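Example 9 (inverse folding). The structure is encoded as follows.
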């Protein structure tokens, strides 16, 4: 039976290193291909790696992954040291967006996905929000919010600028994750998720140090993983819901500003920020002022005047 591994970025890179053979002819969409005794291995741009032949299972098993059943073939998901079967557990996942964007909010979401919903969400196309277009985000977010208990904390720039005087950005993120997770745990009572998965941005010890003194700290069955969406669809769902709220805020702020606010923190952002100030608007209502962009904007304004 063929085996498929859905590899995250790092795993895919390692597999490519192992199998890539410059002499191989590549099928459409393929990135590498290797023919070995008893097994051929093909890696696709989508991150899927297909193992075919008598030794398919044996070769795929080298990659420290857990196999879950699928209709057509066995699909294997990269699970690291997470418990066996983790991708099909009921999981409360959390993720945030907006940390690298000068304009717009910091938005954190948690979504609870039951055992039965995992496959359904995957079939709907729920995956890493960075790979999805805005219209797809909107469509999927609405479906997720209809199906799953969730909570969102959307810190608009004004609130963000107030809080960032008191906390560093990672600490603020930790507070937001803890808050949204706690809210969903309350909403789903008396149910409990089998695990909680946080899209990791600091080490677990730093995360909990940041939460010191908080009245409620979500600690039980919590796992941290970078690229959390590749370990459980609940994190992918949380990233989509967060992006949806963030998009809506960006639209509202753009309307308030009378021009389209770009995401990111590049030169384009500085130019738009200059226009806002020239219009007499308060940058603190639109942007995260502690970013280096603020100094650049002030410098640009000084040069103009
Ligand atoms: Mg994240």
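The amino acid assigned to each position is listed next.
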């Amino acid at each position: 039976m063929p085996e498929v591994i859905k590899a995250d970025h790092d795993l895919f890179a390692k597999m490519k290193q192992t199998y890539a053979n410059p002499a191989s002819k590549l099928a459409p969409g393929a990135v590498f291909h290797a023919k070995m005794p008893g097994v051929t291995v093909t890696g696709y741009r989508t991150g899927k790696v297909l193992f075919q032949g008598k030794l398919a299972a044996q070769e795929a098993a080298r990659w420290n992954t857990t196999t879950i059943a699928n209709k057509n073939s066995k699909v294997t998901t990269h699970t690291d040291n997470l418990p066996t079967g983790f991708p099909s557990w009921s999981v409360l996942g959390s993720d945030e967006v907006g940390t690298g964007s000068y304009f717009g909010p910091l938005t954190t979401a948690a979504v609870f996905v039951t055992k039965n919903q995992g496959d359904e969400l995957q079939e709907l196309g729920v995956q890493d929000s960075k790979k999805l277009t805005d219209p797809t985000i909107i469509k999927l977010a609405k479906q997720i919010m209809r199906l799953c208990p969730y909570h969102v904390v959307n810190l608009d720039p004004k609130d963000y600028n107030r809080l960032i005087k008191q906390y560093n950005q990672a600490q603020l993120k930790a507070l937001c994750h803890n808050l949204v997770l706690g809210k969903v745990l309350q909403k789903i009572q008396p149910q409990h998720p089998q695990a909680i998965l946080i899209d990791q941005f600091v080490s677990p010890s730093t995360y909990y140090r940041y939460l010191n003194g908080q009245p409620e700290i979500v600690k039980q069955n919590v796992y941290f993983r970078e690229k959390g969406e590749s370990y459980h669809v609940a994190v992918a769902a949380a990233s989509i819901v967060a992006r949806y709220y963030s998009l809506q805020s960006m639209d509202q702020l753009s309307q308030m500003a009378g021009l389209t606010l770009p995401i990111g923190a590049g030169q384009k952002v500085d130019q738009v920020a200059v226009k806002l100030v020239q219009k007499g608007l308060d940058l603190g209502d639109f942007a995260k002022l502690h970013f280096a962009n603020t100094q650049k904007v002030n410098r640009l304004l000084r040069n103009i005047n």
